[in-house]
Structures are given as C-alpha cells and as structure tokens.
C-alpha cells in the first residue's frame, strides 16, 4: 500500500510570501549602490539623496499597520499585488528624473508605500493566520526573505551599475517586482478556510471580516496599545533596531567603506555577505523564539550589535581583511534576528490585534531608520567621516538591550480591551 503524504497548504502560502518578500527587497538594495552614481551625475549632496531614502524608510514603516488592516479587510493577495505594482512603478520612473523632488516622489513615496505593504506586518499576518505550530520558525524564515533579496540583488545591481549605469539597475528592479505579481495572484490565499483546512497546528477558525474603516482599525489599535508600557519599550527598542540596520549600515556602509579605499563592488559583496549570515541568524532566531523567552533574546541581540558597531570604525580599511570578515559574521547573524521575538511579544501582549500593533512597532523601526539615514549623511557631509555615526549607533544599540530587558517588569499582564490580549500588569491576588 502506498501512503501519500500531503503537504499542508500553509507551506505553499509561506513559500509564495517568501518570493514576494524577495521581490520587494530588490528596491531596498538599490540605495547603497546608487548613492555615489546619483551624486556624481546630478551633483546632489549625500544628505539630499539620503533624505529620499529616509522618506522611503519612514513610509515603509508607517504603511505597515494600515496595510495589515487592509489585508484584514480586502485580503492579503490583493494588497500584495498592488504593493509590488507600486514598487515597479516607483523604481521604473526614476530613469526619467532630473530633479531631487522626483527622487523623493519615486524612491520615497511610491516605493515606500509599496515596500511598506510587504513589510514585516505582512509577515506577521501570514504567520498569524496560517501557523500555530512552527510560528516562530516560519516568522524567521519569512523575515530572512529580505536578507535573501539583498544577497541576490546587491552584487548583481552593483555590477549592473558599474557596467550599464544606475538606470539599467532601476529597470531591473522594476521588472523583477512585476514578475512576482502573477505568482501572487495564482497561489497566495488569504485564509486557511479558503482551502477548507485549518491553520497548521491549530483549529478551524472562520475569520470575522472587519466592517469598519481599515485606517480606523489601525489607529484604534495604536490608541489602545499606546496606553501600555510594553508597547513603548518594544517600539523604542525597534526604533533603535532600524537606526542601526537599514538606516545606517544598509544605506551608508558602501560609501563609508569607499572612503577608506575599498572598491564599491567589494563593499557591496561584503554587505551581501551580511545577508548570508542574516538568513542563518534570523532562521535560528525563529527556532530559538519557539523555545527561549523573547525578552532574553532581544537583550542579547541588541547588546551584540552595539558592541560590533563600536568596533567597526577601527577595522574599516581598503581590503576585506580577517577582522572585517569577523564583523560581517557577527553583525550579519544579528541583523534582523530581532524580528521573530518582537512579533512573538506583540502577539503575547496584544493578542488578536498583534499583527496590527506590530505594524506600529515596525513603523517605529523605520522612523529610527529614516533619522539615521539622514543623520549619517549629514555627519559625513559636515565632518568628512562616518566615525561618530558608528559610535552613536553602537551606544543606542546597548540602550535597546536595556529597554528589552525592562520588559520583564511587565511580564505578568491582563487584558484591557477586546482583542488586545495582555496589556497592563495584573492585580496581585
């Protein structure tokens, strides 16, 4: 007798979501390799170009909670398809720009809205609906989709920029985003009940379709969550997370390395190598999140990141020497390892509203990233070096470690509102 093992549809949904996240990550790889070419062609300062990156990072975060609410109302598939269309449009239009305000519109607004709709709120929605068993692990794997995108696109785009110019790289990103749309429409599903199954490891649950305005749903979740100490500790730590990853290293590592004589292609390859270790670290973090208290994990991750950033100014050089490779290893393992425990804590503290609340926590991540992207560019313009940007980021990461450990003071909580899970300290018996 032949026994056929049927793979649960949740894995298929997760695979499609992973590919969509890779497609969206394509654009997020472009600022690092395009800062110098845009500066050289148009004469714009690094501060001006970084401002466009900051708008993108800010909208990338602010869009997340509203996108999560829109997914609850209109479905994951529709929102994801429109988001990739916006990424393709924004990246494609840059080839005709000749003014810095057009860079702000294309890089900042259009692509910011598109990538923000496929941000970590998208991950939280997928894992929250489709997984009970292995939720932490799958969160780590999907989060690694962004790192995988960087790994794929950074070296490729860097070589395209050098050989064919930045416009060809922008068109490449646009085409890749469009190619993912048919797969989204074909294979992505909104709920397990759409296929007559339960969430993996869970029970049958018929989702209640929201009747209110999606924006009001997102704002109500923010209002209620903002009454809690846990929200501000999570948001504060995640803001620093964004400042010390996407905002600083993701945007400025290549030009900073170039300041020390390192070729752009070598620096881009090192940043892509961060993506390799990021994939390993994030998946491992998801596995650990299913087994270890998330507060301990966050405290350790941020402390490790802070120490590595404090060392970076002393090891930047013209070549990828062993000390730099050690930094790439440790920093890469820690890049977005913070995501699985943060998603888990949002669900622990805020229950059914966890994905939307995480969208707001993620907005703080991008707010920190936006500030760091512009601030580091201004530091470089004014001082001629990135050294103090690295030191400041290292100190902030150590502060984030302390904020994460402070969550232990509010570990035992009780509900304060329907759908908001655990939010304020429970009264002592």
Automatic annotation (TrEMBL):
Organism domain of life: Bacteria
Coarse class of the protein's main subcellular location: membrane
Transmembrane segments: 42-67, 79-96, 102-124, 136-157, 169-186, 231-254, 266-288, 309-333, 388-409
Presence of the UniProt keyword Nucleotide-binding in the record: no
UniProt membrane topology term: Multi-pass membrane protein
Pfam short name (any one): MFS_1
Gene Ontology cellular-component annotations: plasma membrane
Domain Major facilitator superfamily (MFS) profile: 12-412
Protein's name according to its UniProt entry: MFS transporter
Origin species: Actinoplanes awajinensis subsp. mycoplanecinus
């Amino acid at each position: 007798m032949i026994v056929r093992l049927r793979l649960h549809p949740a894995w298929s949904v997760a695979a499609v979501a992973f590919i969509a996240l890779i497609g969206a990550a394509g654009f997020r790889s472009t600022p690092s390799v395009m800062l110098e070419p845009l500066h050289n062609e148009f004469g714009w300062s690094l501060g001006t170009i970084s401002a466009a990156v900051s708008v993108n990072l800010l909208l990338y975060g602010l869009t997340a909670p509203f996108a999560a609410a829109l997914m609850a109302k209109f479905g994951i598939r529709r929102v994801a398809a429109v988001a990739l269309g916006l990424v393709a449009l924004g990246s494609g239009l840059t080839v005709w720009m000749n003014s810095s305000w057009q860079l702000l519109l294309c890089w900042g607004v259009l692509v910011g809205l598109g990538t923000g709709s496929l941000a970590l709120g998208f991950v939280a929605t997928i894992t929250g609906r489709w997984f009970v068993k292995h939720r932490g692990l799958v969160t780590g794997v999907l989060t690694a989709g962004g790192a995988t995108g960087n790994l794929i696109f950074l070296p490729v785009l860097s070589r395209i920029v050098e050989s064919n110019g930045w416009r060809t790289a922008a068109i490449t990103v646009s085409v890749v985003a469009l190619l993912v749309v048919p797969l989204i429409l074909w294979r992505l599903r909104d709920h397990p009940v759409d296929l007559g199954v339960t969430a993996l490891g869970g029970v049958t649950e018929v989702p209640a379709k929201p009747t209110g305005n999606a924006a009001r749903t997102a704002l109500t979740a923010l209002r209620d969550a903002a009454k809690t100490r846990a929200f501000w500790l999570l948001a504060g730590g995640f803001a620093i997370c964004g400042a010390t990853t996407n905002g600083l290293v993701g945007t400025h590592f290549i030009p900073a390395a170039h300041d020390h004589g390192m070729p752009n292609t070598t620096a881009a390859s090192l940043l892509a190598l961060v993506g390799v270790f990021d994939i390993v670290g994030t998946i491992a973090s998801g596995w650990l999140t299913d087994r270890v208290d998330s507060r301990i994990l966050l405290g350790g991750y941020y402390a490790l990141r802070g120490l590595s950033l404090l060392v970076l100014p002393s090891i930047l050089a013209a070549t990828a020497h062993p000390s730099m490779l050690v930094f790439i290893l440790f920093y890469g393992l820690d890049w977005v390892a913070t995501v699985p425990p943060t998603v888990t804590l949002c669900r622990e503290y805020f229950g059914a509203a966890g994905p939307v609340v995480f969208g707001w926590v993620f907005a703080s991540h991008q707010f920190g990233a936006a500030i760091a992207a512009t601030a580091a560019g201004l530091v470089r313009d004014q001082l001629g070096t990135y050294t103090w940007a690295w030191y400041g980021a290292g100190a902030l990461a150590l502060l984030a470690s302390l904020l994460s450990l402070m969550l232990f003071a509010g570990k035992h909580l009780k509900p304060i509102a329907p759908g908001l899970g655990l939010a304020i300290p429970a009264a002592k018996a």
